[in-house]
Amino acid sequence: MNNRESWSTQKASKNATPRLPKSYNLVIQLSRKIGTIAARQSVVGEHGQPFDLRALVTSPESLFGSVIPKTSIPSGPQVVSDRWTKEKERTLKKTVSRSHEVLMTANTVFPITLFPDSVTLDRTKVTITRRDFFWSSNVLSIRIEDVLNVQVSVGPLFGSLTIASRVMSTVDHFQINHLWRSDAIRLKHIIQGYVIAQHNNIDTSHLNKKDLVNTLIELGQDSNN
Prior knowledge:
By secondary structure, this protein is of the alpha+beta class. It has helices at residues 2-15, 22-44, 53-58, 60-64, 76-99, 181-199, 209-219; strands spanning 102-107, 118-122, 125-133, 136-143, 147-154, 158-165, 173-180. Strands 1-2-3-4 form a 4-stranded antiparallel beta sheet. A 3-stranded antiparallel beta sheet has the order 5-6-7, with helices on one face. 12% of the residues are buried.
């Protein structure tokens, strides 16, 4: 009999829920009341308007506060402005690179000239380089728009090229002697064609190098040839 009572007492003691201290129960009750009051106030909102708690809970700011950096998404006009700026920069770089594209270069004949001179034609200018000694030179650049006329004098083997410029200086024409005959004639045709295209407002910027040279030669071709 005593064994049964002791066994039942032990079983009841195992199944019984341990009692918590009174102070802990008091804290639990107070926290529940405070949570209920706060939830009611947050639902009503500051100005008496209903407030969606789901938006408050699911927003990153409600969970992390100001830890998450706020990134500003550019608006439509700003995106268009940035694209326009990049497009202008790309066009400028393309124009600069194309302006230095050499169409033709001719050198005077060695050893008739001990230090050969050179004439270089690109899309924007004619550059004349005169050399007097090693590592010394005199470089002159003439814009295509400033070229008034170009003249060539040829012999059996050699030729000379004379370029007249509208720039007011001590010298208004520049002569390069002792070029190969074919180079002098070809330079004359290309430069003359460029002058004609400029005076007639013919746009040649869209042409590649080969097509541009052929077009200018055709424009500058002499009528008796």
